[in-house]
Amino acid sequence: MSHRPRAIIGGLILQRGDTSDASINGWQTLKAGLLFGDHHRAALSAADIQSASQELSSENPWVKRFQTAMDDDLNTSGALAVLFELAKGLQREGNRLVHEGQTQASLELLWQQWQTLLHLARLLGLEVEADSDTDGATGELDEGAISDLIQQRQTARQQRDFITADDIRDQLTAAGVAVVDQPDRAVR
Predict the structure, then answer these.
(1) Residue-wise pLDDT tens digits, 159-179
(2) Which of 85, 79, 81 is nearest to 67 (CA)?
């Protein structure tokens, strides 16, 4: 079996024979975490935490775990696990913010976790930029465009064109729109 890369997505190399979508899903999770502050800038600005110190302490538990992994014979998989934990937590809180209008953790803590994730990811060469095809900081689409995309996605799903439906879902997600499919085929 060859160890030549099959594809490079967001700087992560997917090996030939990787038939699962785990690598792609992992990158999407990490990307969502890295873009947390860009997608939720309005909420973070309202909490007036942008002026908080960006200095990362070596006492930060996430930094400690990352450093321990990297000091263990350059255990990058352990270091990546720290990044994925941070990203999953930010993604979960971002979903709460979108659907419930509030988060379980304080916005200050989420901002610190986002800054930690950005810093640690940069150490591994992982960076993303906010999507440039949206309207800047908020990434919002107007209601008409959202409705059109949701209708196109519903049509694609009814025609069992799941690739197109997933692409449209990704477009909506990138614009900060969460799509929730209901059991009765309704979408909210």
Answers:
(1) 988 888 888 888 888 777 777
(2) 79
Percent of the chain with pLDDT over 90: 31
pLDDT of residue 9: 44
Q: Where are the domains of the chain?
A: 5-123, 139-188
The residues, any chain, with a CB within 8 Å of residue 85's CB and separated by 6 or more, are 62
Of 110, 85, 97, 106, the C-alpha closest to 178 is 97
Give the whole-angstrom CA distance, residue 133 versus residue 125.
24
The two counts, helices (H) then strands (E), for the chain are: 8, 2
The pTM assigned to this predicted structure is 0.60
As to burial, measured by CB atoms within 10 angstroms (0-12 exposed, 13-18 middle, 19+ buried), residue 114 is buried
The secondary structure element, H or E, covering residue 139 is: none
pLDDT, tens digit (0-9, with 9 covering 90-100), for 135-152: 443 456 677 788 888 888
pLDDT over threshold 90, residue 119: yes
Q: Kindly report the CATH number that applies to the domain delimited by 5-123.
A: 1.20.120.640
87 DSSP assignment: H
| Tokens describing residue 49 | 């935490």
